[in-house]
Amino acid sequence: MIVYFKGLKTPYVAAIDIEHDQGHMIQFAGILMKRVGEELYQVERSINFYVKRHHLNDFTTRYTHISVQFLEACGISLDEAQTKFYEEFIGEIPIEDITFVSHGIKQDSIVMRDSGLDINEAPHLCTYNLAKQILKRDKRVKLSDVLNEAGFCSVLEHNAYTDALETIYALSFLLKQEED
User: What is the pTM of this model?
Assistant: First the structure.
């Protein structure tokens, strides 16, 4: 997949999302895209992992459809999550060469930092804030609202990997709208 990101200049863009339970990360997903032309980016690699938890708030389970049983069976430790993030996802790329994007980057970066995944030295973009500004919305703007505005429909809300993928579509749409 090759995507147009009007105005972006960094060598890499990482669309990310997390699901968390009261500030404790339970899922991280990221799609790393490399610049391959003037404002054109192509998927370089992606990652999706779950972090073990022994207790989840009932709201979190209903909201994300992630259960304690699933996390125990499929989750990894926080130490393993940190290794996967830095060695498999970021790899050899200097963090300042990556623009991290999410729909709510402030909250995501706080939970990530508290989980040992620090992106604060990297450039950030927030599709939530961009959508409020570009689409001139005063109230809350969900990722699905931005996708609908762009002619897409949201497939599976509150799954970090799907949300990261949909953030790519939202960012491309919003940056193009900003130009017009």
Answer: 0.95
